[in-house]
Amino acid sequence: MKPQPLPYTAQDLRRTFKRALAKKGIDAVLDQLTPEVVARLSCHQVTRILFELDEEKYECSKSLNTSANDNNGPIHKRMNTLEAKQKAVNLGAAMNPDVRAEYRRLQKIVAHEADNQRGHVWRGPRDKLEQRMGRAFDTLVYDHTDFFRLHTALTRASDDTLRDAGMLPLGFFWTERLKYAMFPPLKPLEKRITLHMPDPEDENYFSVGLSKFHTDVLEAIAVLPPFISRFLEEFGYDINLAERLGHIDPDYATNHMTSDGRSFEDSAKGVHSDSTSIIDLPLFFVKQIEGQMETLDAHTCNDDLQMTLTHEALHGVDRQLGYFSKNSRDMARAYQRDLTSLRDMDLDPYEKRAIAYFRPVNDGGKHESAIVAKSEAFAEIGAELALGMFDDAITPYFSSSAQVTGVVIETLRFVYTHCPNGFVMLDPSLLTGRSKSNYASPLAPSSLKLA
Ligand SMILES: [Zn+2]
Hints:
By secondary structure, the chain is α/β, with parallel strands linked by helices. The protein is about 55% helix and about 5% strand.
């Protein structure tokens, strides 16, 4: 089809598109899809075009799979066209004032309605929090399909953008963030740090230690990288401080034995609980030194506390990304490469001990399960990269895993900077000037903006 000269006014343009889309679908307007044109369409039209492009791409990929021996040339060509058009539409959507206004308008309405359910969601047993929130959220989705349809379209556009920039598409993480943005926790993070008195008899001794610990944790949180503290803030984490982990959750004391026969809680500096979004921090742990069991401070300085908090937060991130460390193929390959090269390395006993927690048993490590060892490596490397703390670091021993983990950390840093409140919003400068090639330094200031 030969491109026709386009109508000058937005109103005429929209009418032309409406007719064309109704008659022949997306193919009728494909040639016309430039950012400048898309920027002048209605929000409804932009959403529809984004969805139809996705469907077309899906159809295309299906025929690619089934016709492996045939001539795939035309299908590839079609796919390339669709992808180029999608980029143009993403950029156009970011520039479109109607999309922006409509997203804000609907967001306000939905958030206002969610507000009535907020108390109900957060009060009640902690281990049922996600169920209560899920139910309340499903009702919102059912009642406000136009907002969620638009949100999904913008989420996909954002993920395309992240992918193009060499970062990680966030997928369901967007939906999880949106849920918590709709039903924010009732209390701010600093009010969600609770002290556990392990033994009423010893209340004085421990309350002195614990209240000092409380202050230390508050100070550590205040200097965490903002994307880590924002994550803990918005996902409603509670932080439990106690003498020992076993006093918080007896299960850890009895069921988590490590290979050297000590219980897990004897040596852990912190625990992340998936089902309740609680992070447990112990005041001290027990260590065997020259045959004697000694009690040591779990965290001797602010850096230690920051490392533990960030490590545990990254277990939470891992989960919100659909267990990235377990399911990402890139991570699996990278971790395997690291394990292989560690086997050939001549490590001294100190080094072996230092990395044991991040290797499976059959590689001289502590964990029976390679999946658990890998998730620990992800959390620890991620914390070292996020904080830029490399004293006694394990990152040098896991250089391939560190590359994959580094992409996750940079994506989080980026997304929490540009979408601070869980809602997606595209900015006109979004797609300009950033591509894989200039994503060389993970710390380079970004020219990409999601506002
Ligand atoms: Zn861990």
